[in-house]
Write a structure and sequence with these properties.
Elements (H helix, E strand, L loop, with lengths): L1 E3 L2 E2 L8 H5 L2 E8 L6 H14 L8 H10 L5 E8 L3 E6 L5 H6 L1 E10 L14 H12 L4 E6 L4 E4 L3 E6 L2 E5 L9 H8 L7 E5 L3 H5 L3 E6 L3 E8 L2 E2 L4 H15 L7
Parallel strand pairs: 6-7, 6-13, 10-11
Antiparallel strand pairs: 1-2, 1-5, 3-4, 4-5, 7-8, 9-10, 9-12, 12-13, 13-14
């Protein structure tokens, strides 16, 4: 289903700089009974609008009204905003139980992230490079692409943030390496003490990742996904990753929002 500028199942958008130049932002949310971590998604979305110079602000009320009109529960909600358009669409959750049982594999993209570009840090309509690189990696038999930056440090996946574990410490690339500040990435960092874990952000190489005791990726729809293989190297299974997944799954199951 689709909601365009307040109209259900509308099929017309207004041509603007979002269409002509990709000047727009989007968010993809997991919805159970309510959208999960909606406040954090909304802050990032409105921050992206400011960065792109779009004089527009989306409110919590607009999103709750959209989920009601679209009857969106136990699904994925996508919000796309440009100067003249606000679009909400829904789809089914594509990740299956078997995906989490098996784990994902990562393949290295040839594209390097530019840590000096403002667009690197905005979830904008200019997302096609991610999709192209992910499609290439999937054709090679992997599940997700991973990017290095121009300095050779790991940054992120095409649709995910990445974490690895060594000696009980969780490591993840710092944002200034050139990556989108993921909502679930922030959740893990902010809740690390509750999980009795230490998270360290920094600059890490592909070798650091390959030598890790456990690796996982995150995004708001996927949640926590363990990594079983990077390129041709098979990784050992980590009990820490399993514990983090259990913690987040319980959070989602018991989620109660604070509506403002």
């Amino acid at each position: 289903m689709i909601l365009i500028n307040g109209n259900l199942n509308e099929d017309k958008i207004s041509l603007d700089s979002g269409f002509f130049f990709g000047r727009g932002v989007f968010e993809t949310l997991l919805v159970k009974e309510e959208p999960i971590l909606l406040v954090e998604h909304l802050q990032r979305l409105n921050g992206g609008l400011t960065t792109l110079g779009i004089n527009k602000k989306i409110t919590l009320a607009e999103i709750y009204n959209a989920t009601k009109k679209l009857d969106c529960k136990n699904c994925v909600l996508k919000i796309m905003v440009s100067d003249k358009n606000t679009i909400f669409t829904t789809r089914e959750i594509s990740y299956k139980h078997s995906d989490y049982e098996r784990g994902f594999s990562l393949g290295l993209s040839d594209v390097r992230r530019n840590a000096f570009s403002n667009l690197t840090y905005v979830k904008s309509f200019n997302y096609v490079e991610n999709i192209i690189e992910r499609d290439k990696i999937i054709k090679k038999g992997y599940n997700e692409a991973i990017f290095l930056n121009t300095e050779g440090f790991i940054t992120e996946g095409a649709v995910s943030n990445i974490f690895f574990i060594n000696n009980g410490v969780i490591f993840t690339p710092k944002i200034k390496c050139g990556l989108l500040p993921g909502i679930l990435r922030g959740f893990i960092i902010n809740n690390s003490l509750s999980m009795d874990l230490k998270v360290q952000e920094g600059e890490f190489t592909l070798d650091d990742l390959m030598e890790a005791e456990g690796v996982f990726i995150t995004n708001s729809v996927m949640g926590i996904m363990k990594i079983r293989k990077i390129e041709d190297k098979v990784l050992t299974e980590s009990t820490v990753v399993a514990a983090i997944k259990r913690y987040y799954d319980r959070y989602v199951e018991n989620y109660k929002s604070n509506r403002h």
